[in-house]
Give the backbone structure.
Amino acid sequence: MEFETVQLELDVCADTNDAWKQIMRRKLGSASRFEIHCWKEETNEIRQAQQFGTVKACSWEYGTVIEGRVTTEFVEYLLSLPKPTDTEVYNKMTPFFSIFLDNGFSSEHYGTEFNQMKYSGS
């Protein structure tokens, strides 16, 4: 069995997060579980994610991982988020550092990078 990573492109200079939402809508449709990764100091974002999941034990000393089910409420919440305004370091599309789905898809670096694990073997 072999997997490869396929990077999906996104205009990281966009003024809105509409393109991010379109891609996320498609990918969330085939997912049943998620993980959201936040830096420890992102306490507000951690609280937001905990509305839909629980903190997962992990060895990432600088961050917190929240895991949960992809529900209609979670999808509606995620797709209703406005584009963050704190875009000095990254032109953020989402307030969450990384979102991983159990279908092999991830939105990383505040939605500025997408990855899709692709099955490519027997």
Q: What stands out?
A: The mean pLDDT is 89. The chain is about 20% helix and 30% strand. The two ends are 5 Å apart (CA to CA). The first strand starts at residue 3 and ends at 8.
